[in-house]
Amino acid sequence: MGKKSIFSAFLFALVLFVGLTSCTKEGLGGKGEIKGHAYYESKSFKPAMFYIKYGADSSPGSDISRYDASSASDSDGKFHFKELNKGDYYIYAVGPDEGQTVAGGVHVELDKDEHKDNVQINVAP
What InterPro entries does the record tag this protein with (predicted)? Predict the structure, then answer.
């Protein structure tokens, strides 16, 4: 095998390695975080359930089985999704209010290792 063939094989392997290791999909495995809360009638809404859809820039709908993960609100009505990769996410909030269900959602785009700490989701009947 000549020097040119060895160099070509090495270059191909290097390009393949860089290509495979630099591509990440939305979802878990990163250092990104999304935190926030739901609002209803100009005040923080609680209790609520929050659902996240990886790789979505618009609502996948109200069927919670279409979402990838969930989180109940804490005592202050806040949610927290962590260890996220760069990409698009859709957060959906739903909960009860005086005999009716209120819901809403928002698209969030994360850069690599970005922390979004005050995402607001407006919910309505």
Answer: Ig-like_fold
**Cα(19)–Cα(106) distance, integer angstroms:** 31
Rounded distance between C-alpha atoms, residue 71 and residue 88, angstroms: 18
CB neighbour list of residue 13: distance below 8 Å, 6 or more residues apart: none
Give the tens place of pLDDT for each residue, 16-41: 444 444 466 899 999 999 999 999 99
Count how many residues are written for the chain: 125
Q: What is the DSSP letter of 85?
A: P
Distance CA 111, CA 85 (A): 8
pTM: 0.80
- Name 122's bridge partners: 39
Cis peptide before 125 (omega within 30 of 0): no
CA distance linking residue 69 with residue 35, whole number of Å: 14
Tell me the CATH number for domain 26-122. Answer: 2.60.40.10
